[in-house]
Amino acid sequence: MTLAIMQPYLFPYIGYWQLINAVDTFVIFDDVNFIKKGYINKNNILVSGNSKSFTLELLKASQNKLINEIEVGNNSDKVLNVIKQNYSKSPYFDIVYPLLENILMQDEKNSAKFIGYSLQKLSAFLEIDTKFIYSSDIEKNNELKAQDKILDICKKQKATNYINAIGGKELYDKEKFLEQNMNLNFLETKITEYKQLKNEFMPYLSIIDILMFNSKDEIKKMLNKYTLI
User: Which of 43, 52, 108, 179 is the most buried (most CB within 10 A)?
Assistant: First the structure.
């Protein structure tokens, strides 16, 4: 069984979705500390041809709290308005906007569950059949840290292969995983260029941008454009 473990990110870039698509089970890592400068509640979209950040409000967010201890604020309508202003002329706006509206206007206030819902909703839209689990629902040794904690989760889920984003290459040791009868791979994304209205192509934007400018079939092809190292 192939497994990935990642913190919940809001509308992440294509590499995150490639990781979801590449595994049997995706663990939403919700019982770890919130990172203020990360992508848990923000991402980048195309604004006047440039990459610009948008942020989902969180209430009393702190690096001393776990992700699942923080609540979502009240600016979802403003985020939707920014999306509408900048993508209303995109070819797939009429299909994608109602989906984003459903996600951003949900009643859930727990930040981990809110973002977890978005990951599952968009995965269903893209016909990705990966199973999702919250790490807080897994019985494990919460005293463990870093690689040891990941290994513990993998063992509890009976994983035979753990795949991580390429950014984690310096954090994990393949030998340690092999000692536990597990393979370790890193996913390196290959970015596909596509037309963004009349703008010069801007890579590494939120999945929102890809959804607005590409058909579902085109996105499915992008999901498979990566290398496992």
Answer: 43
Of 67, 63, 41, nearest in space to 135 by CA:
67
pLDDT at 82 over 90: yes
Taking the CA atoms of residue 150, residue 138, residue 17 and residue 127 in that order, the dihedral angle to the nearest 10 degrees is 150
Is 28 in a helix, a strand, or coil?
Answer: strand
How long is the chain? 229
What is the tens place of the pLDDT at every residue in 18-53? Answer: 999 999 999 999 999 999 888 999 999 999 999 999
Q: Where are the domains of the chain?
A: 2-228
Alpha carbon distance 3, 191 (integer Å): 23
**Nearest in space to 154 (alpha carbons), one of 191, 182, 126:** 182
pTM of the model: 0.96
Contacts of 216 (CB under 8 A, 6+ apart): 125, 126, 127
Is residue 199 scored above 90 in pLDDT?
Answer: no
Residues 226 and 107: their CA atoms lie apart, in Å, by: 35
The first and second tokens of residue 85, run together, are 């202003």
What CA–CA distance (Å, rounded) separates 90 from 84?
Answer: 10
Mean pLDDT confidence for 95-108: 98
pLDDT for the residue 191: 96
- Rounded Cα gap, residues 192 and 49, in angstroms: 17
Angle made by CA atoms 126, 130, 131, in degrees to the nearest 5: 135
Mean pLDDT of the chain: 96
